[in-house]
Structure formats: C-alpha cells, structure tokens
Amino acid sequence: MYAVPPADDQLTxxxxxxxxxxxxxxxxxxxxxxxxxxxxxxxxDDGRTVLLRIAAxxxxxxxxxxxxxxxxxxxxxxxxxxxxPWGVQVIGTARALVPSPGERGAFPPHPAAPHYLRLTPTxxxxxx
Length: 128
Known about the structure:
It is built from two helices and six strands; from the N terminus they run αβββββαβ. The protein is mainly β. It has a six-stranded antiparallel barrel with strand order 1-2-3-6-5-4.
C-alpha cells in the first residue's frame, strides 16, 4: 500500500503536470448525461486556473455549461511521453470565457469559432 498525498499536494502536482500535454478530454453534462469532448488546454497566467478550448461543434453552446462542474483529464500519452507514464484529472467549476488576444494566441489556430472555458479546479487526482 502507498501513501496518498494530501488533496492540496495533488492539485499542485496536477497543475504542474498539465502544461506538459497540449490537449485532453473534458467531461461535461449534456441533457443531464455525461459527455466527453476533446479539448485543448493552457494554464492561465495565475497558475491556478485552466483555460480550455473546445471545438465549436462539440458542444451545443459554451453557455450551457457556464457555472457547472467539469472534469478535465490528460496524460503522458497526450504529451508524447511514454518512459514515465502519468495521468492528471482536475475537477472544478467552469465559466464561459471571452478570451483576451493573449489567451486566444496561446492556443494553436482553429478554423471554426470554438468555445472557451475557464476551469477553476478544486479537486485533482494524479496517477503515476
């Protein structure tokens, strides 16, 4: 059996690992059912919130999940790392975001009008 780090340590570790991978999966609700959508992410300048970009067709509208709980997951495979596998999941409240030019520029170009969210994680799980 191994010791599980305290929740604060898990969140700190998760926020440290997230920038190593460019994309992952967001778990949202759609018609009261779980729905997984691919997403790109960036750590916000504050280092405590996660900016998500979800393709325009993946959601019925970013406003539908504004203020709801969202889980976001990424792992070492998404980062192209295989030597020391890891996985991160963060859970928190998501808010619809109108990104600043700097926030928008942090993501690769996207041809359609994507949805942007700001996720404020309060729970995290790190698997190694």
